[in-house]
Amino acid sequence: MIMINPLSELFKNNQQWATDTEQREPGFFSRLLKQQTPQYLWIGCADSRVPANELVGLLPGELFVHRNVANVVAHSDLNALAVIQYAVDALRVQHIIVVGHSNCGGVKAALNDLRLGLVDNWIRHVKDVRFKHKAWLDHVPAQRRVDALCELNVLEQALNLCYTTVVQDAWTRGQSVVVHGWVYGLHNGLLEDLAMTCACLSDVSAAYDRALAGIHQRYTDAPAERISAESGSDPR
């Protein structure tokens, strides 16, 4: 007979967390029940080492979160698009942040052609980023390529986000929505802004070029302008 673990320690932890939260902020859960008014949508990796709310010190109700393997924003992913649409149109978030992280397993699989099963089809989105920037990645020292591709992936997924119909429609009607691209360092617990910050469609091209140049500068000594031209990485 198979004994099922009731995971009682998780329920115990939950009870303690709820008690501590209510003691710290009396009436917290009653207020939370009545409204959800986050200013931010976090699109991050499903990696268990990257807890969105904790990293930025926000409580439940203050950060709307969508996570998947390698923080991908795919135009065919109705799950992600539905989250983005609800966040922008219903919750009226003001900032959407695509957050990757160092030493990402999905990015590592895309870089090294690892076969993991069904997830290979999803990781193909990251492989597309790899192939787009192959000429530049070939100049990056081998031990740094995973993290370089992590940052490139954030840049490309933030670009995809800017070109979703949801974000473009919001910008067209004058709604304040700012897209950001960040990366989180597992080694030091710190977030870094990649300077892919767009508040309107006219911001996108310059923000992309600026962020790409910053990545190039951090990871290679080769001139960013030359490698950018080689890799054909101009935004759409």
TrEMBL record:
EC number: 4.2.1.1
Name under which the protein is recorded: Carbonic anhydrase
SUPFAM superfamilies noted in UniProt: beta-carbonic anhydrase, cab
UniProt family annotation: Belongs to the beta-class carbonic anhydrase family.
Needed cofactors: Zn(2+)
Protein's GO biological process: carbon utilization
Function: Reversible hydration of carbon dioxide.
Catalysis: reaction(s): hydrogencarbonate + H(+) = CO2 + H2O
Pfam families hit by this protein: Pro_CA
Matches recorded under InterPro entries: Carbonic_anhydrase, Carbonic_anhydrase_CS, Carbonic_anhydrase_sf
Binding site for Zn(2+): 45, 47, 101, 104
Native source organism of the sequence: Vitreoscilla filiformis
Note on how the cofactor is bound: Binds 1 zinc ion per subunit.
Keyword terms of this UniProt record: Lyase, Metal-binding, Zinc
NCBIfam families linked to this entry: PRK10437.1
EC class name: lyase
Molecular function via GO: carbonate dehydratase activity; zinc ion binding
